[in-house]
Write a structure and sequence with these properties.
The complex is a heterodimer of chains A (266) and B (170).
Chain A: H1 2-10, H2 12-31, H3 33-61, H4 63-82, H5 90-96, E1 97-107, E2 113-118, E3 131-134, E4 138-145, E5 150-157, E6 162-166, E7 172-176, E8 184-191, E9 201-204, E10 216-223, E11 231-238, E12 247-253, H6 256-263
Antiparallel strand pairs in A: 1-2, 1-12, 2-5, 3-4, 3-12, 4-5, 6-7, 6-9, 7-8, 8-11, 9-10, 10-11
Helix pairs in contact in A: 2-3
Chain B: H1 2-22, H2 38-42, H3 50-68, H4 73-92, H5 106-109, H6 111-134, H7 140-165
The chains are: A alpha+beta (266), B mainly alpha (170).
Chain lengths: 266, 170
């Protein structure tokens, strides 16, 4: 502590100089639009580079866990193939959706509106509005696309609405996020006569062109509706753990243009 | 004591007014932007402490900035000048030269010394000013041209101002 005081006493002029310069530069960047844009650009470039590098290292260090997860998923897929009750139209269903694997290189979960950056872009066939799913379920929708990267609006975003249905009785509802924990979201617009049970599973409805039907979204954690509401509300636990998200698949609907051309006539 | 303070305050106000009302409004071409208020920093007494210099530099820079609508731009350059002023004085003089001298002015130190001292500090000041204005290293060529031309123009106007207001007694 004493040494600190000696240091400050000796270099007080330099310290005041640095403080004043920093103050000036903060004022410049905040008040002059050109300098502000330059600064934001510059910091984005630096932050993007650092994110990419740390993400590379992180991937390497987690290879073992990733391998195990992939092996498990492989096993699951193989067992599904082996099952006898594969529906007859699965083959033509696969024709509709193609899956593009991607890496998460930047992810936020604590903001009011969270976004994910993935390392696939226009060159790899990614387009805005495509759905993004992870190993455990829905992740979000593609928002913007650059040549090699894309930003994804995750479910943890106040603008995100996903059309879902209850897996057991096919009733449709919407899943939104209420800026709370990254593990939980809200199910809204549940028909009021429907009895909501804790542990009910929600899957995608397949009504939006972004997601195939029956992709897991989450399970009901708590019924929040009161008896005089028009529509019921429930707390949902997302099946995707957004804090450990590394691998995702972008869902490409091969007939999207065709479906959209029909929708325009509405 | 009070005499010096009042004289400095009058200088401060006069130079800021000259800068923002006169020289900021004259078009000297694309590359030349003379900074006259820097004279206030140049001729502060030798015995000013570093911290006092820094605070004075910040205040006059901000005063000019408020009038020209560029908060922090002139202040950053002037604080930089204030920080380097003691080192430039040390570089350009010997200890024995400074005995009995109060302020680094033309009348006390001579025209030749003052010109070298002023152009060095003006170059440093303008370099920071134009770099922060361009805010990019890619425009380095333009920054250097602006710095050089503006510093020379500023020095000429500074010397004119000095001779105009304080004729040298012979």
């Amino acid at each position: 502590m004493y040494n600190l005081f000696i240091f400050i006493k000796k270099y007080h002029a330099v310290i005041i100089f640095i403080l004043l310069e920093v103050l000036c530069i903060i004022m410049i960047v905040q008040s002059l639009p050109y300098q502000n844009r330059k600064m934001v650009n510059w910091s984005n470039n630096i932050a993007g580079g650092i994110s990419k590098t740390t993400s590379n290292w992180y991937d390497y260090l987690n290879l073992k866990c990733e391998n195990e997860a992939l092996v498990q998923q492989n096993a699951l897929l193989l067992s599904r193939l082996a099952c006898d009750d594969v529906e007859a139209d699965t083959a033509c269903y696969d024709d509709v959706f193609t899956y593009i694997p991607a890496h998460v290189i930047n992810n936020s979960i604590y903001e009011a509106n969270n976004f994910i950056i993935i390392d696939k872009g226009k060159v790899d066939g990614i387009e805005p509005e495509m759905g993004v799913i992870g190993d455990n379920g829905v992740v979000g929708k593609v928002l913007n696309v650059s040549n090699h990267y894309a930003s994804v609006m995750s479910l943890l975003n106040s603008y995100s609405v996903i059309s879902c249905r209850f897996a057991d009785n096919q009733y449709v509802a919407n899943v939104v996020w209420d800026n709370g924990s990254y593990r939980y979201g809200l199910v809204k617009d549940i028909p009021s006569h429907l009895i909501i049970n804790i542990g009910d599973t929600l899957v995608t409805s397949g009504f939006s062109n972004s997601f195939p039907a029956d992709v897991l979204v989450g399970t009901i954690e708590e019924n929040m509706s009161t008896s005089n509401d028009m529509f019921g509300t429930a707390k949902l636990k997302f099946s995707t753990n957004f804090s450990t998200l590394r691998h995702v698949y972008v869902v490409k609907n091969n007939y999207r243009a065709e479906i959209d051309s029909l929708c325009i006539t509405h | 004591m009070y005499n010096t303070l009042i004289r400095n305050i009058i200088r401060f106000v006069a130079l800021v007014i000259m800068q923002v009302l006169v020289f900021d409004n004259i078009g000297f071409g694309n590359y030349i932007h003379p900074t006259i208020y820097v004279l206030f920093m140049l001729i502060l007494p030798f015995d000013f402490s570093k911290v006092r210099l820094l605070i004075n530099g910040f205040l006059i820079g901000m005063a000019v900035d408020i009038f020209s609508g560029t908060p922090g731009l002139n202040a950053a350059a002037t604080v930089f000048l204030a920080f380097l002023r003691p080192y430039v004085i040390k570089l350009t003089t010997r200890q024995s030269d400074l005995e009995g001298k109060n302020c680094p002015t033309v009348s006390e130190m001579g025209l030749q010394w003052f010109s070298v001292y002023a152009i060095l500090l003006l170059l440093l000041h303008n370099l920071v000013y134009f770099w922060l204005e361009a805010f990019s290293i890619k425009l380095l060529g333009l920054i250097l041209i602006e710095t050089l031309l503006s510093s020379i123009a500023s020095l000429l106007i500074l010397l004119l101002t000095i001779y105009l207001f304080k004729p040298i007694k012979k």
